[in-house]
Each structure stands twice: as C-alpha cells, then as structure tokens.
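Quick sanity check, ABC transporter domain-containing protein:
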Amino acid sequence: MLTITQLQKRFGKQVILDKVDITIQKGEVVVILGPSGSGKTTFLRCLNFLEQADAGTLALNDQVIDAKKATKQEILAWRRQTAMVFQQYALFAHKTALENVIEGLIMVQKMPKAEAILLGTALLTQVGLADKLTHYPAQLSGGQQQRVGIARALALKPEIILFDEPTSALDPELVGETLAVIKSLAHQESTLIIVTHEMQFAYEVADRVIFMEHGQIVEQGTPKEVFESPKEARTKQFLARTRPNLFEEVFV
C-alpha cells in the first residue's frame, strides 16, 4: 500500500502540489485526469524523486520517508520499488531495444548478463516486440519505442509503475497499441498510476479516477462515479470541454 500525506511542491511562489493526501492499494489502477498545469506530472515526478517535494511523507510497505529530507540511500531504496514510463520514451539512442531493457538489470541490479537477456527477451515478447530485439530506437515507431520503455519498467519488477501521459507523443494511429499493452498490465502484481488524457481508456482500465486542479485532488471515485455522476462542478466542466461526446462514445 502506498500512502502519501500532505505532499507539497512549489516552483518559486507558484504552488504546484497543495497538501495532497491519498492512499493507493497494492495492485490498484489509478488514473489521474486534469487540465495542463494541474500538478499531475509533478505529482508523479515527486513519487519517483525526479523532483524533490518541499514537504510531505511517503510510505510504501515498511518504508516511510520524509519527501523533503530523504537521504540518497532512502531515495535509492524507494526507486527500487518504483518505475517511470515517460512521455518521450527516454531510450538510449545508441542501444538496441534489448540493450535498453537490460541496462538497469545489469548495471544497477547486478544481474548476470545471460539472465538479463532471457528476462529482457521475455518482456519485449510480452509487449509485442519479439522481432525488434536488435533494432535501435531510430528504427522503431513511436509506439514501439514506448513499448520498449514499458518493458524496461517491467524489468525492474517494481511495486509501482508511473505512466506520465504515455500516449501524448504518439501519432493517433499508434495510440491504441500502447494502451492495449498498459491495459494488459492492469490487475497484475504492480500498482499502476497513470496520467492520461485518454478518457475512454481511463474509464475502461481504472479502479479509481482522480481529477486534479491547482495541485489539489478535486474529486475521486470509480470511473462510473466520476464519468457518469461527477459531484464537483469543475469536474463536470472539464469532462464536457475535453470530450463533449464522451458519454456517447463510452456508454452508448
């Protein structure tokens, strides 16, 4: 179980995260929605210490740390339990798909290379890239590169996988294949926290949907509750403006 208490982050005078409190159960799929600048990405980055929060407490299993004062050792231990899938893939351009997946296994986890190759091959097969093991990022489509990123995250066997708008950099034709892979991961061992603008995907995959604005959680609930019967006026406004035909697409 992941427990986040009073998480705060500022950039100068601007409040990005405003005392966020949330508890996420093991294996839960949580989708975060909200307008640009609402704090969604910063929230994920603070959870993986890519950004250092200004205040708050993070607890995962038996590890409880001060989000602002965490030591390097605490951050390293925390990161071993989490993995991030980025918008822009963040692959090593000079390494093949397989090499990108096994780099962390060999260099960080000190796994024997032969074992890492077996695991990396299995994971790339799982995400539909068995025939792309020796391809470099420049030889792959955006959707394929994103699936390499997902395989790399899975290789670390994390407790939590953080997805930061994983389809935002993809051509519309390539979005479906990436969403299908993420959907296949739902309700397996890892907890998934997903920032996305894909409303239908959110409805179909999430156990819980969170709507954020101005660094705060405005509303949360099951997909049915949030999409069909939102309680907050701002949530209703966001859903109507973002996808005015959402209800026809999802519910008809």
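Posting the structure with no commentary besides this: The CA atoms of residues 88 and 152 lie 14 Å apart.
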